[in-house]
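User: Show me a protein chain along with its predicted structure.
Assistant: Here is one chain, sequence first, then structure tokens.
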Amino acid sequence: MIQTNIPIESNHAINVKKIERQWHALSNIWRKVWGPHIHHGYYYPKIENSALTPQEILLENLTKSFHFIQGCNVVDVGCGMGETAIYFAKKYPINITGINISDTQLEIAKTEAKRALLTNITFIHDDAHLMHKLEDNYYDIMLSIESAEQYTKKELFLRQAFRVLKPGGKLLIATWCSDKETYEGKEAKEYLALCNIFCVPYMPTIEYYRQILGKDFHLISAQDWSENVKESWKIGIDKLNELSYFQLFKLSGFDGIRMIRKIELLQNAFEQGRIRYGVFIAEKSLSTTLPNF
């Protein structure tokens, strides 16, 4: 039996090396297939005649309750290649910081921000579990969009989020979740395969996040957006199938090809409802006491 709220690999240093290696291999191919936003798109219900990409529609829907007022401080944790931060830095007069442990992705992010002539954005190498380069009680908004699934110690991440957010600051988490607290037999093997191949230490349920966020944050909403985003995998796989083996190798090497060949495991897990797309919005309480995580 496998419990989904317990890491398969609890050594954070080992997980960091795996994740860095993964994104070194996959960043270019993911960018080729999904474009600069390497996260799910919002496909259902379909929005007709939109000038936005499905990935941008997802961002708009995720943050529609937020107020990006002039001069507010925003941090994007696990910022990928920086496109989410760049998108909001172009749209709003805010100060935004992106943090990531992947030097490969950070270099892409810095290059793209420079190309866009943005002066209100910064990208730094920092760990979501530590955030040691981020100030206490400083940020108005924290975004964590499809990065929390790769955090080894999710409660430690929330502790740091609580520390760096201002009282009343908002936290958005969009992450992969399991549909059950435990798996057995074939389901357990498939869960382990997904976690190992895609460098996910563990995938707790939506209920797990609801409970740990409710300890010290005020949980505003906890939702399942699986039906809205799962089309992303079919579209992504179709695009991958258009590429030759040589193109795949050139973009991702043997490590990337190994992972890409297993990508249908993710599609199947979403289609079968074993992976859920959890979306959480929480607010830091006005109290400045340390959290209870």
